[in-house]
Design brief:
Layout (H helix, E strand, L loop, with lengths): L3 H32 L8 H26 L7 H33 L10 H23 L1 H6 E3 L15 E3 L4 H41 L12 H32 L5 H11 L1 H11 L3 H17 L1
Antiparallel strand pairs: 1-2
């Protein structure tokens, strides 16, 4: 009979494999589109960074948990732990930033012509790539503290300490380092989450006004169709809601595990699974608005038809 840990390992393997494959395929599509001007979209750069961050998060978060679930204890050492946890934290923050940036871009795109922020429509495209690379650099600097404090965990039976993974742990921070570090991370996360929430409220209000207007123009054929901008807005809203739900759930469980009186590996496993849900689901939400994927499927079907 398969043990509970082995079942969880199988579930994590499926989650990591499916999510990594979906993000990798979309990343390849966006990178290809960026090299072909006629196929390029303004958001391809944002989504390329998002899918890359998601793929790295799944690999560096999923593989250690999968290995642990199947009872293996490889010696990755201090250097391996530093690398794994550092990439986990940086890519998680990049995922937060790119999702927030995507929602901001969409909110500006559908903004009314009389809106005060309409001047951003002409400038925001040129600001996307510099802001993305700047975000990578800033987060790599912020989370460099983890490199100094992370060591390999030699005692895997002790579940009372504040581990970040089955094989690694983070030594306690000094007040002079810990307070600025945690404050910076919390403020950054709060700002990006607030920005996503504000963008979502604005986009919902725009969609509602559009729906109200469309009801008065029933004679127009186009009024019953959803425009590409509004279809993209629906996808971004779904993406933001999914991110916020899993982010808050993961944050709550992490805080409970860190500060609760009792800590169990079962709850750790649930938290690890939830933390990888958004990177896994994200590419399949994006595919809903990616007509280039459906075109590729159509081309493949026609090719098979003619070849047969």
């Amino acid at each position: 009979m398969i043990s509970e840990d082995a079942l969880f390992g199988i579930l994590l393997t499926i989650q990591t494999g499916v999510g990594f494959l979906g993000n990798s395929l979309l990343f390849a599509l966006y990178m290809y589109a960026l090299t072909v001007p006629r196929k390029k979209k303004p958001t391809d750069g944002i989504l390329a960074h998002l899918t890359l961050a998601n793929a790295l998060t799944l690999v560096f978060r999923g593989l250690p948990n999968i290995i642990n679930a199947f009872g293996m204890r490889p010696e990755i050492g201090d250097a391996g732990c530093k690398t794994v946890l550092y990439i986990q934290r940086v890519t998680r923050s990049i995922s937060l930033y790119t999702t927030s940036l995507q929602s901001t871009f969409q909110a500006v795109t559908i903004a009314a012509s009389g809106c005060k922020c309409v001047w951003l429509k002409n400038k925001i495209s040129s600001l996307l790539q510099p802001s993305l690379f700047l975000c990578w650099i800033i987060n790599m600097v912020i989370y460099s503290v983890i490199i100094l404090k992370t060591v390999a965990n030699r005692n895997t039976t002790d579940v009372l300490s504040g581990y970040y993974s089955p094989f690694c742990k983070v030594n306690s921070y000094d007040l002079q380092v810990g307070v600025p570090f945690l404050s910076t991370v919390c403020i950054q996360d709060f700002l990006f989450l607030s920005l996503m929430a504000c963008n979502s409220i604005y986009m919902v209000s725009v969609l509602y006004r559009h729906h109200q207007t469309a009801q008065h123009i029933r004679s127009s054929v186009c009024s019953s169709r959803i425009s590409p901008e509004h279809r993209a807005t629906h996808v971004i809203l779904l993406l933001v809601c999914t991110f916020i739900f899993f982010y808050l759930t993961n944050s709550f469980l992490t805080a409970y595990l860190q500060f609760g009186n009792k800590r169990t590996w079962q709850l750790e496993n649930v938290n690890n699974f939830i933390s990888s849900c958004y990177p896994t689901i994200c590419p399949f939400i994006l595919i809903k608005n990616e007509n280039r994927v459906s075109r590729l499927n159509f081309i493949n079907k026609r090719t098979r038809t003619f070849s047969s």
